[in-house]
Amino acid sequence: ASVPQRGCSAQLSSTSAPACCLMLVCSFTKLVWSAHRVHKGLFKKVYTAFLQHPQVLDLVQAMLSHPLKVHHPLSAVERSTGSLLVKLAAAVVNNMADSSSSLLVYHMLSLQLLCRFRPSEESLVKELLSAVVFQTPFFKCRSQDIVDALSRLSIGNRQAGLAGGSDVLKAQVDALACMRGTFLALLGTQSSAQSLWYSRVRHHPQPCLLPSVLVSSQRAALLPIDWMFLPLLEAFALSTSPGHLSSDSDNVPERVCRSVSHCLQWLVLLEACQPQCIAQLHVTIKVARLFCVFLVGANLFLQTDIQQSLVSLLQIYTQPCHLPELGFGRPIPGLASFYDLYSSLVAQYDAVSYGNELFASFVMLPLHRSCPVSLRRLVWQDNDTVLQTISFSAAQSPIPLHMYLEPIEEDTMLLQLYLQALARGIVRPQCSLLYCIAVCHVSSYLFNNNEATATQSPPSSVRRAMLSFLLSQKNQTVYHHVVGFQSADAKKQLGFSFLSTPPMDRLNVLAAEVCRSGLDSGLANAVQQQHPNVLDAALALARAQ
Prior knowledge:
Blueprint: H1 22-38, H2 43-51, H3 54-65, H4 75-95, H5 104-113, H6 122-133, H7 136-140, H8 143-151, E1 154-155, E2 158-159, H9 166-174, H10 176-190, H11 193-203, H12 230-239, H13 254-273, H14 283-295, H15 304-317, H16 338-352, H17 357-364, H18 373-382, H19 384-389, H20 402-405, H21 412-423, H22 432-447, H23 461-472, H24 476-484, E3 485-488, E4 496-498, H25 504-517, H26 522-530, H27 532-544
Antiparallel strand pairs: 1-2, 3-4
Helix pairs in contact: 1-4, 2-4, 3-5, 4-5, 4-6, 5-6, 6-10, 10-13, 12-13, 12-14, 13-15, 14-16, 16-18, 18-21, 21-22, 22-24, 25-27, 26-27
């Protein structure tokens, strides 16, 4: 019989395989599951005749791409069916190693189901974490593909790859059992023993043990969409709790270290093996979560396994496909203020990093031009030590150099901070990335980087003040670099090319500023001693007027 109002009909629903309805598939899957537990010789037949059946695969693909809405009457049936299918696939994989590559779609389904389970389904979450999600064969069958993919990764213009190659990946795959223990322990802290027991007797089923068949009206998922970050977030919450681990503590508990390490290793495996299940998280959410690693204790990020995982994740999140999304202006779920988090990260870098290159790479990520200007002001305003210890060359930039330079900076307060950092020697040519950023933006602002209009547009008061400040400086290197700046080039030692002889139109801009200040002013006297060619141009301009 057809019962349309219950989601069952003779026609296909959004999750049904051809010529069958969802409840029938669920019942038959339970039968196959029970049969394989009784008769261990059925694995090959279950694999070929059921799990690889085209209509069953269509059902799985429909569950992946078009799951039923939470309020749908059969959404719980769909989740139950999916959990039975993936448990069956995991059982087959453990007994037929050659079937693992063809059953990866079931592993993907198990990862997506974890974010869909609702209250009263705690036991299903535990079963999937225990028996399916962390099953080694699902990862070993793709180990070479993962190594090849990670070895091609790079940070900016640096070809870095996965440190240690296949050996590190093998260690991460071998640690899957430990990762499983970390997430199961976390689930145990979030779900009470009573709720797990009620869920188990409800789904196996043992109705005589249930005091009530009613379920909670809550529709929120048991696990958040970023459940793979939960051990890291729990460690961060612990570090910010009064009377517990503090962010400047050198002694991070071994349990916390293991938990964070397993979390990061799991993230690397997911990004390399099943990126679709984590692609729904915006890259800024992922990077913001990774910032927490540096805020959990003073030296946690220095541990070898954690450092290797962070390098791999940084490589993944700075690939060209992610760069357009790597802005931090949009709200981040679970975070009241990204500015406050980044401020804490910068302060932590200043306190404990000692110029660590990996830590500096994460600090540099929110400083490119697509990010809010307040983040750049934060670093350039009152953090001289931070600027001095970020010692990247332009070629070592964690993201392409042009992202820091284009479009030209328009915030006058930040431009003045750039010029002050150059004049005071806070950023030096030896640290060419920050030096290049400051020189490029200051030069482009002062001279418009447009030779046809540089002398035509009237200078603002800020520009005039910056021109006077530049002319009065005794640092000849900064003067020649700013006035002679030509174009950015990461291959150059300084990160840019410059003209040894300043262009005449730029000399005219400087001369015009000397004339406006007066040829008998203190600025003219300073220019006469340090830049006589500018004074000559000013005198010629005065005579022409």
